[in-house]
């Protein structure tokens, strides 16, 4: 029987304008993420918040025990929601995330948060490899400009490239609006997200 969970990855203070590593369009992404978070809570779906703290000295952001590493207040965990600390890019690597999903008999995961080209990508691929049905809500995920061989790749292009790669083989990629419509009216979507 299908049972789904929402995984909110790395919506932490350092990714916001006053933080050390601000992301492109983080305000809109947060609005969509919080909308999905409240929809999951209303539906009674398990919610797992994943947050990152670097285990290295002098990290560029997400330093342990700093304001920047704290989950942004707009999406803070509520009582009964899990919070999983990771020290690597992949939310499944060296964490209890998979065990939590297995304990609750989760079959389907919806992934939102940041960054599209790092933690979202690696979590979605791992979840797929573990056999979960994966949905990534693209407009509830954020990225930033990247530099490669002296070229700057704009954040939106980075994001789009990663979403298209995930959709090709690892996940269903959708928007907040389509995701919520499918949740409210499953018969219009063949009964699936």
CATH class: Alpha Beta
Residue share in β-strands: 15-25%
Q: What is the first-to-last residue Cα distance? A: 15 Å
The percentage helix is 25-40%
Supply the helix-strand structural class.
alpha/beta
CATH architecture designation? 3-Layer(aba) Sandwich
Shape estimate: globular
Q: What number of domains?
A: 1
How many whole angstroms does the radius of gyration measure? 16 Å
The CATH H-level homologous superfamily: Isochorismatase-like
The overall strand count is 8
Order of helices and strands: EHEEHEHEEEHEH
GO molecular function: hydrolase activity
InterPro entries: Isochorismatase-like_dom (IPR000868), Isochorismatase-like_hydrls (IPR050272), Isochorismatase-like_sf (IPR036380)
Protein name: Nicotinamidase-related amidase
Pfam family, one: Isochorismatase
Task: List the defining traits of the structure above.
single chain; 193 residues; alpha/beta; Rossmann fold; 5 helices
Quick summary:
The chain is an alpha/beta fold and 193 residues long.
């Amino acid at each position: 029987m299908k049972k789904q969970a929402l995984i909110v990855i790395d919506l932490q203070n350092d990714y916001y304008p006053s933080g050390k590593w601000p992301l492109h369009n983080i305000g809109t992404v947060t609005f969509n993420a919080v909308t999905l978070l409240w929809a999951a809570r209303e539906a009674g779906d398990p919610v797992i918040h994943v947050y990152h703290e670097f285990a290295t000295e002098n990290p560029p952001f997400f330093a342990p025990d700093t304001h920047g590493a704290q989950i942004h207040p707009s999406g803070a965990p509520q009582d009964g929601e899990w919070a999983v600390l990771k020290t690597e890019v992949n939310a499944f690597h060296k964490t209890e995330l998979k065990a939590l999903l297995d304990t609750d008999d989760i079959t389907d995961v919806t992934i939102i948060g940041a960054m599209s080209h790092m933690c979202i990508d690696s979590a979605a691929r791992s979840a797929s490899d573990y056999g979960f049905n994966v949905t990534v809500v693209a407009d509830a995920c954020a990225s930033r400009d990247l530099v490669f061989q002296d070229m700057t790749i704009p954040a939106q292009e980075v994001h789009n490239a990663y979403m298209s790669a995930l959709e090709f083989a690892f996940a269903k990629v959708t928007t907040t609006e389509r995701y919520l419509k499918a949740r409210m009216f499953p018969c219009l979507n063949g009964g699936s997200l």
